[in-house]
Amino acid sequence: MEVGIDFTLESSLSKIVKNRKYMDFLFTEREISSADRLAPGKQGEYYASRFCAKEAAAKALGTGFISKDNIKWKDIEIIGEKGSKPRIELHNNGKSRLKKMGYKNIKLSFSHKDNYVVAIVMVY
Q: Domain 2-123's class?
């Protein structure tokens, strides 16, 4: 079992949310589409939690985003349908890395408080 954790301020992503090119680099179309359906005041929290969760997942996978395994931001997708707990779906190098580690499962938990977001990811 491996664990990754990350912490961020929602306000630290405010410039990213305004830059579509950077958002396209960090987030999948499905993540962006989900955010677009939210009220503008909720989008910052949404993106901060996804960013934080992706960082935690990359740490749990033992690579971060700069490594020889070359995990990309979009290789880690945070899925959260209304009324269900958010989950991680791995793609491409993220999926390969999990398999290479000998694990099959990845779990996510995150929490919001005021301007803060924390995410914990466990692979097992």
A: alpha beta
